[in-house]
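Data deposition worksheet. Section B asks for the primary sequence of the deposited chain exactly as it was used as input, without tags or linkers unless they were present during the calculation. Section C holds the resulting structure in token form. Section D is free text for depositor observations; keep each observation to a single sentence. Incomplete worksheets are returned to the depositor.
Section A, Depositor: J.P.
Section B:
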Amino acid sequence: MTHAERRDRRRQIAEAVLCGMEIGKVACDFGVAMAGVYAACREHDVQCALPSARRRNAILAAPRDGYPARDVALMYGVATCVIQQLANRHGLHLRGMRSSAASRKLRVIADLLNTGDSYANIARQHKVSRQAVSLTAQEAIGAGIHITRRIPRGAVSAE
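Section C:
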């Protein structure tokens, strides 16, 4: 790409942002990093970042308009955890957004309910510590979920 072509592409990037395209979408469409979009906007005196309150409101409105949270994260150039934190802070439930830790905890609880495996075996399957499985079991029991008690390794059943 020649210098003139690069200059023209930076002008097109700035125009796209000026027309209202989201920074993340512009970056994807032009095949550049978001830093490149910001640089093009600075070069052509285009304000490319929404003020924080407007940006936050736009981010929070997008999932309500039916956009999945992952797409919203891409549109605004933020991590999905940022979208989740904003949603939690404002009492919104986003479909399709569950932290990997929460998902893992649910899978551990399912194994505790549906298998007779020891805490150590469940821990190995889910790549967590035995203590994490034990704490998850205690949390589930505290929430009223009936978890079958496991026999400690080496102990003899009283049957």
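Section D:
The chain has three domains: 1-49, 50-97, 100-142.
Residues 3-18 form the longest helix (16 residues).
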